[in-house]
Write a structure and sequence with these properties.
The complex is a heterodimer. Chain A is mostly beta strands. Chain A contains no helices and eleven strands. In chain A, about 35% of the residues are buried. By secondary structure, chain B is an all-beta fold. Chain B is about 0% helix and about 50% strand. In chain B, strands 2, 4, 5, 6, 9, 10 and 11 form a seven-stranded mixed β-sheet that branches. In chain B, strands 1-3-8-7 form a four-stranded antiparallel β-sheet, with no helix packed on it. Chain B is built from no helices and eleven strands. Chain B starts with a strand and ends with a strand. Classes of the chains: A mainly beta, B mainly beta. Chains A and B meet through strand 4, strand 5 and strand 10 of A and strand 5, strand 9 and strand 10 of B.
Chain lengths: ~110, ~110
């Protein structure tokens, strides 16, 4: 059973454009939704995270939109830059803090100069 | 900046051999984890460890796997008898206590089982 579904699998965006990655989850007990950025040969690094008590969280060029009723959340990268080219994973967990994280399958983002 | 460090970065082993992957979590963190990522696939939870015992484990973490915090700083993952399908990148992660719970990942140990 896939707890977190992520799309698209890959994404190519022009520099300055908006990158949008979508995730859907099944377990209504999830209460922590982070996005991780992973560069080749590196471990995942936390980018931004949201809890279900808010519908949107913005940090710089990165925004999470959260729709609790639809059980969906998305990452928007504004003014995408070539340095943003990486694999992005959404994840979800339940309980206190970031316990057992269920990761999505990842989106490989390529930002073309 | 504090970081999670892992050794070795790459290990090649023969099927059936025992492997130990080592991790040094961030010093004031209380919760420790192992995740794995098969090449090109998603990151999967293996086990979490708190207060010197396993707090949660996935179905992947069978009897061939064990974890240990032998000396208060290292956190190890042992695979007793490796199988071909154990080939993956293994990530150690740690977090401090509290509700915010940001998980910090190491750079991973790549295990290749021949």
């Amino acid at each position: 059973q896939q707890q977190v579904k992520q799309s698209p699998q890959s994404l190519i965006v022009q520099k300055g454009g908006i990158s949008i990655i979508n995730c859907a989850y099944e377990n209504t007990a999830f209460d922590y939704f982070p996005w991780y950025q992973q560069f080749p040969g590196k471990g995942p690094a936390l980018l931004i995270a949201i809890r279900p008590d808010v519908s949107e969280k913005k940090e710089g060029r990165f925004t999470i939109s959260f729709n609790k009723s639809a059980k969906q959340f998305s990452l928007h990268i504004m003014d995408s830059q070539p340095g943003d080219s990486a694999t992005y994973f959404c994840a979800a967990s339940k309980g206190t803090g970031a316990n057992n994280l269920f990761f999505g399958t990842g989106t490989r983002l390529t930002v073309i100069p | 900046e504090p970081e999670v460090t892992q050794t070795p970065s790459h290990q090649v082993t023969q099927m059936g051999q025992e492997v130990i992957l080592r991790c040094v979590p961030i010093s004031n963190h209380l919760y420790f984890y192992w995740y794995r990522q098969i090449l090109g696939q998603k990151v999967e939870f293996l086990v979490s460890f708190y207060n010197n015992e396993i707090s949660e484990k996935s179905e992947i973490f069978d009897d061939q796997f064990s974890v240990e915090r032998p000396d208060g700083s290292n956190f190890t993952l042992k695979i007793r008898s490796t199988k071909l399908e154990d080939s993956a990148m293994y990530f150690c992660a740690s977090r401090a206590g509290g509700h915010t719970g940001e998980l910090f990942f190491g750079e991973g140990s790549r295990l290749t089982v021949l």
